[in-house]
Write the structure tokens for this entry.
Amino acid sequence: MVDFWTAALGLTLLLYILLDGFDLGVGILFGFVHDAKHKKQMLNSIAPVWDGNETWLVLTASILFGAFPVVYALLLSAFYLPMILMLGALIFRGVAFEFREKSVTKKWLWDAGFAAGSIVATFVQGAAVGAMVVGIPNAAGRYSGTPLGWLTPFSILCGIGLCLGYALLGATWLVKKTEGDLRDAAYRQIVKLLIGVLAFVAIAFVFSLAMELRVMARWIERPGLIVFPIVGILGCLLIFRGYRNRSDALPFIGAVTLFISAFATLAASFFPYIIPFSITLDEAAAPHSSLSFLFWGAGIFVFPLTLIYTIAVYWLFKGKAIEEEGYD
């Protein structure tokens, strides 16, 4: 049961990062676009799927609450303020998405809200990951840090890095889903954003060495981890090849591969810890009876049905977004 819920947690979190990542990335890029036609195209490209993507965040939190309650309690205590910021940003972003289409005189306000909500939610997620890499101070599973303990130079760097990464995902999605001038503009942004992401990786690596983070020692203990960065390099090559050949689907596949590589690298570096490097998966897991009870409900029905629904929606709305049709 622990293995099952560990795999389920990893899959739900990865799906959230990939699926909500590209629509948050579109939101980040939205703030730098001034052409009304292009803005409408951008929203059309994510309209059928954006709210469903956030379902995976709900499932991730639900699995933590039910299967790993110690981690749920610790993370909620450590990231209370950033959680409020993220949820507020996601809510305001959703409201802005719907209200801007109906607004006559305040469209600029909802446009700004959509972009700002996307940036804040993304930055907070990246900063939280950075804080986890540095380490969450706790005593017997109880948070022992300060309310702003999550906000460090390294976590700020990770927040900026995730903004660049999601923007890259968003740009590749726009290339895949749109046509005309917007597609061409997205192509021009891909290489710049990829360079920014690689620069972040290099700076984060130097920071990690300078701070002597424990995660770096895992590379000495587990030299096989090098396979994941190699997969990331393959993702970069796919992005560049798609950009050079104007193959619209290839850059997005490459960006997804790059994110899977980064996620797998962190997960493999942390394993068997769920809170690095203080609480293991076995220590954090709920009693076997609770895990089994969850399995016969969420594990058999909720999780698979959500996955089937997600696949069906993306299949139904495959292809280019129609420029003339409104997303409402």
Q: What stands out?
A: The first strand starts at residue 138 and ends at 139. The radius of gyration is 20 Å. The chain is about 80% helix and 5% strand. The domain at 2-316 is CATH 1.20.1630 (Formate dehydrogenase/DMSO reductase fold).
